[in-house]
């Protein structure tokens, strides 16, 4: 388990929901004398729910469940139900079959009804009808108003289940819909075992707020007569509960108590189902049970997917092509069906899915299996045993154990995948993970469009997929990869299902004036503690967030870092060095752990600042929770590969297209200079201008403990008036570092005493030392050491055309050191030419301006003052305020006043 920091703000939202709902359930438990109550699960399904509402299920010809009626009834009985009902979709076949077998059952079904003005299908739980009435109800369900008029006329009670959950996203849904529902229904389901706590609490508060005056006002507004639908506005709404179980795991654990006065005497002359129907009509209902957030649905979907994997049949290509749905839906179903049918060829995988299903039903794998299975998979068997054992525990303990086991399984299998991929690459003399380059990725990892060439090779080219025998690698990875996909898929799907209408939930909460989701962003980054400029700027952002307690938390993947306020740390599943580009590591985070932190932390948006593994994680979170996602662009990768690789224009265009596809997946992209913004919104990248935000890095407070030191302590023999250039950066070619010899040599023609000091490290260090043998190389410097250098030396030189901002320019300005740089990208947005530095076009002009700077003391003094004034314009408060505002976050009120006082102080110091 990784270490995390949970601030009190993070937990407030979910804690308040849990506390509020627990109090409600406690109150309901005391409403009626249990001795006069029948216990019922109002909402559960079996194998006769064979036509799913979800489009993909219909395209793939998958039933909603394979659960047998007999097993469902047995589970309901084991969990204490006094009355049985089965609410299958649009049919009561299971109820009629039970009646024929002599089982007392409350006849019911969950009808899918059409709301014409919203082009929307909603569910209606319906009870106590006859077989003849079932036929009419199926005809009437094409119009919700006709359906409900019929049920009211024939005294058939109905319940509106999961009122805030709809099976499709629908832009036509607005708050008027809920005003109509208040007029159309008397009973609402506020406890659904497969839906999340937020929806349940919102529904509860909404239903309890429906006063007689409100219902009458809504009826008048929408020209509806409540009496037509059997609704009495003067009576409070009736609230119910049910498990919504489809898999036979949770049935009967959530439900309702039905109060019948003098129950024991009444049971002598009436069946439980008859008394239950009487109590429903009277509204004597009290929900019981607990909401499992997304955990229960995750377990249910994992069980469902496990059965789908073993039971799916080929849906047929023409059926998929001709079925209703978008092209994306059809392509998605084609891919999924092929993946699942391919999985069925792997006996090992099929056995595992069977074991998963058995474990979720409480059946442990055979003891001999643990001794027979490969040592890499003994861990999987142990987790399945743990799941099966927990079935005997409380429902809450079972849910916790299963979800914990899913996370552990996913982490273990991904570590196994990473090690096998690494071994395969090394064994086949493919790309070595400690030295791979952009060229190799671009050229070697070109996936052929001909599938046989991808999997079996075409007999000619030997460099596809990095010389790796893909068919052998896939065979080695098939089991852990397929299982990981299913585990991740069930987790993604369970949460995505709950939050597919997140915008509606936000609007609903705002309308209620309570239960609003906390507005917080989780900021993912691959680099925070590394030795580079990006890490420095991100560290500065984190410090400001910590100082002002802003609604943003960072998350990094690191094997040694420790958590801190506003900083989560997850341990890497795998990590490897990229030596060619300096001291840089690629770290693979645990996807499930990040998702857990996002959920438990109450975040509602995601930010990512690096294009590596964290970008993949951010897009997974975006899809899983249906939240806004943003990308913070630190690096101009096109310029980077142009300077560090020999890729031609065609190959660079391939990278550009990859980047365009990536950035278009985000709701917003932050850039650090106007040139980059123009490029992203231009014809090459085609991003929406309204979704590209210009931002900046902010300055760090000047360390008043740092002082100027004699130049002689840095450069032997130097005097106070010795002209000294200074540069601090990663020493690599793309930084323009190899322009320095030409610049310095030209300037020395008129300034023979000119010296240069270099701070930093990188792959071009030795080459630069040979070209400038009399240069002082200090290596990597701490912030305090850098501060003293800025204060002591004269002019900062920045020869990079690659950097998107140039954080070191601001660092120099804070300490009064002017900067000379090329007139491009980041520097031209920061430096004011001939005021606090110089913007030049080439090395000749740079050398000339260096000479001019050192030959005019007045210019030097003015530029020092102006540099500090310019730094004061890059205070944290206004930059962070705009950054968070662009993401839709609200800052604390004190932040603006604090900014004004700090800005005035900075100007005074300057």
Automatic annotation (TrEMBL):
Question: Where are the coiled-coil regions?
Answer: none
Domain spans labelled Glycosyltransferase subfamily 4-like N-terminal: 532-682
- Give the top-rank taxon of the lineage listed in the UniProt record for this protein: Bacteria
Query: What EC number(s) does the entry state?
Result: 2.4.-.-
What keywords tag this UniProt record?
Answer: Glycosyltransferase, Transferase
Q: Which residue range or ranges hold the Glycosyl transferase family domain?
A: 715-867
Q: Name one GO molecular function term.
A: glycosyltransferase activity
A family per Pfam: Glycos_transf_1
Gene3D superfamilies tied to this protein: Glycogen Phosphorylase B, Metal-dependent hydrolases
Q: Which PANTHER family does the record cross-reference, listed alphabetically?
A: SULFOQUINOVOSYL TRANSFERASE SQD2
Name of this protein: Glycosyltransferase
Species name for this entry? Paraglaciecola algarum
């Amino acid at each position: 388990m990784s270490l995390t920091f949970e601030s009190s703000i993070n937990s407030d939202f979910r804690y308040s929901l849990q506390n509020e709902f627990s109090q409600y359930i406690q109150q309901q438990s005391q409403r009626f004398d249990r001795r006069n109550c029948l216990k019922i699960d109002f909402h559960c399904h079996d194998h006769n729910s064979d036509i799913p509402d979800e489009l993909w299920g219909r395209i793939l010809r998958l039933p909603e469940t394979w659960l047998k009626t007999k097993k469902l009834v047995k589970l309901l009985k084991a969990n204490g139900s006094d009355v049985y009902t089965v609410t299958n979709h649009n049919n009561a076949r299971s109820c009629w079959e039970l009646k024929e077998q002599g089982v007392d059952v409350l006849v019911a079904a969950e009808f899918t009804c059409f709301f014409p003005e919203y082009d929307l299908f909603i569910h209606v739980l319906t009870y106590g009808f006859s077989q003849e009435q079932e036929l009419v109800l199926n005809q009437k369900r094409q119009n919700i108003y006709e359906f409900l008029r019929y049920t009211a006329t024939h005294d058939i009670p109905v319940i509106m289940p999961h009122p805030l959950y709809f099976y499709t996203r629908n832009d036509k849904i607005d708050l008027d819909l809920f005003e109509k529902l208040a007029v159309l229904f008397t009973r609402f389901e506020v406890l659904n075992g497969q839906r999340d706590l937020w929806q349940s609490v919102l529904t509860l508060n909404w239903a309890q707020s429906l006063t007689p005056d409100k219902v009458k006002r809504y009826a008048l507004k929408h020209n509806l007569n409540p009496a037509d639908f059997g609704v009495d506005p003067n009576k409070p709404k009736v609230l119910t509960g049910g498990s919504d179980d489809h898999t036979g795991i949770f049935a009967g654990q959530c439900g309702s108590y039905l109060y019948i006065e003098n129950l024991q005497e009444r049971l002598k002359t009436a069946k439980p189902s008859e008394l239950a129907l009487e109590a429903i009509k009277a509204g004597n209902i009290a929900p019981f049970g607990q909401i499992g957030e997304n955990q229960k649905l995750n377990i249910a979907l994992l069980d469902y997917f496990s059965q789908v994997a073993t039971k799916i049949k080929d849906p047929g290509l023409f059926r998929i092509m001709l079925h209703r749905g978008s092209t994306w839906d059809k392509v998605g179903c084609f891919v999924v069906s092929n993946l699942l049918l391919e999985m069925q060829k792997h006996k090992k995988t099929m056995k595992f899915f069977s074991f998963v299903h058995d474990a979720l039903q409480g059946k442990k794998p055979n003891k001999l299996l643990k001794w027979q299975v490969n040592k890499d998979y003994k861990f999987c068997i142990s987790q399945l045993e743990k799941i099966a054992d927990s079935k005997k525990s409380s429902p809450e303990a079972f849910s916790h154990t299963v979800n914990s086991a899913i996370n552990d399984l996913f982490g273990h299998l991904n570590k196994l995948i990473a090690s096998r991929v690494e071994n395969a690459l090394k064994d086949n003399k493919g790309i070595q993970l400690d030295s791979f380059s952009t060229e190799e990725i671009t050229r070697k990892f070109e996936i052929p469009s001909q599938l046989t060439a991808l999997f079996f090779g075409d007999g000619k080219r030997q460099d596809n997929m990095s010389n790796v025998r893909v068919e052998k690698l896939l065979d080695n990875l098939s089991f852990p990869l397929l299982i990981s996909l299913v585990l991740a898929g069930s987790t993604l799907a369970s949460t995505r299902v709950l939050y597919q209408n997140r915008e509606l939930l936000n609007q609903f909460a705002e309308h209620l004036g309570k239960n609003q989701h906390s507005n917080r962003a989780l900021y993912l980054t691959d680099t925070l503690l590394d030795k580079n400029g990006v890490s420095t700027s991100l560290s500065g952002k984190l410090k400001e967030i910590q100082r002002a307690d802003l609604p943003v938390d960072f998350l990094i993947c690191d094997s040694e870092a420790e958590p801190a306020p506003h900083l989560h740390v997850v341990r890497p599943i795998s990590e490897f060095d990229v030596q060619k580009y300096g001291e840089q590591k690629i770290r693979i985070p645990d996807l499930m752990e990040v998702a857990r932190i996002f959920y438990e932390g109450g975040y509602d948006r995601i930010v990512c600042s690096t294009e590596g593994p964290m970008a993949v994680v951010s897009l997974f979170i975006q899809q899983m929770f249906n939240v806004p996602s943003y990308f913070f662009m630190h690096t101009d990768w096109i310029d980077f590969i142009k300077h560090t690789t020999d890729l031609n224009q065609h190959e660079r265009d391939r990278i550009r297209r990859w980047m365009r596809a990536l950035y278009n997946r985000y709701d917003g992209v932050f850039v650090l200079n106007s040139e980059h913004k123009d490029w992203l919104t231009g014809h090459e990248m085609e991003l929406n201008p309204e979704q590209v935000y210009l931002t900046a890095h902010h300055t760090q407070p000047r360390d008043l403990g740092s002082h100027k030191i004699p130049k002689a302590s840095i450069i032997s023999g130097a005097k106070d008036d010795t002209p000294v250039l200074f540069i601090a950066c990663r020493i690599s070619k793309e930084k323009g570092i190899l322009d320095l010899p030409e610049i310095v040599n030209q300037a020395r023609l008129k300034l023979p005493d000119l010296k240069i000091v270099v701070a930093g490290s990188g792959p071009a260090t030795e080459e630069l030392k040979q070209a400038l043998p009399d240069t002082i190389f200090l290596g990597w410097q701490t912030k305090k050491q850098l501060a003293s250098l800025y204060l002591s030396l004269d002019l900062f030189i920045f020869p990079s055309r690659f950097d998107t901002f140039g954080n070191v320019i601001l660092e120099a300005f804070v300490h009064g050191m002017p900067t000379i740089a090329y007139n491009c990208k980041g520097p031209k947005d920061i430096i004011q030419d001939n005021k606090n530095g110089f913007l030049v076009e080439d090395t000749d002009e740079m050398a000339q301006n260096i000479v001019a700077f050192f030959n005019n003391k007045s210019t030097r003094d003015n530029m020092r003052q102006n540099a500090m004034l310019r730094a004061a314009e890059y205070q944290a408060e206004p930059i962070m305020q705009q950054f968070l505002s662009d993401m839709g976050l609200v800052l604390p009120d004190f932040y603006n006043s604090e900014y004004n006082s700090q800005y005035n102080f900075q100007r005074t110091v300057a």
